[in-house]
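WP5 quarterly update. Target: Uracil-DNA glycosylase. Source organism: Algibacter pectinivorans. Length: 221 aa.
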Amino acid sequence: MNFEIHKSWQPYLKEEFTKPYFLDLIRFVETEYNSTICYPPKGDIFNAFNYCHFNDIKVVILGQDPYHGEGQANGLCFSVNDGIAHPPSLKNIFKELETSLDVPYPDSGNLMRWAKQGVLLLNATLTVRAHEAGSHQKKGWETFTDAVIKTISDKKENMVFLLWGGYAKKKIKIIDVEKHKVLTSGHPSPLSANRGYWFGNNHFYYANTYLERSGVTPIIW
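Structure tokens (predicted):
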């Protein structure tokens, strides 16, 4: 199984690719994709890295699992392909953007436009079995994506990390909060958002303000 990841990441992650856990992970993923329907499509698994190159990262958004419905997952957390109905969490993300930055609610839920500006849309687990949420968790992906987060923290400066929900907030322990801006809030899922833990967090505004103060071009959300 041929996994492609953009060359800008290779110097930083090449050691991970040869570790026993990663080789076991790839064998597991290969077996899963050969035996059942999995998402995202094979060629999209590393889209977070392929659309946001290492030298271009400004913001990291961490999700947990890819969408497991047909045609939804495209390798970018919270993102769906053009023409796909927006899942509830994505709707709430866009609603927060509307109120925080007066950004019109977009027709497309494809966040590739963010990725190309330097937003790493990273799921902790990069693959999933169709209609089985969490089915590829604890197989090695989390070890790999934790290494990615730590590498960014160690090698970069003045990054913005947006950690939404309890799972994402735990990642703060591998981020150097002295070098980077870390913003935390509830998850944009309806359960959390409707309890008042998401709306009004102003994360998109605060992220852009920090980037501008750091001399970095802000994101057009």
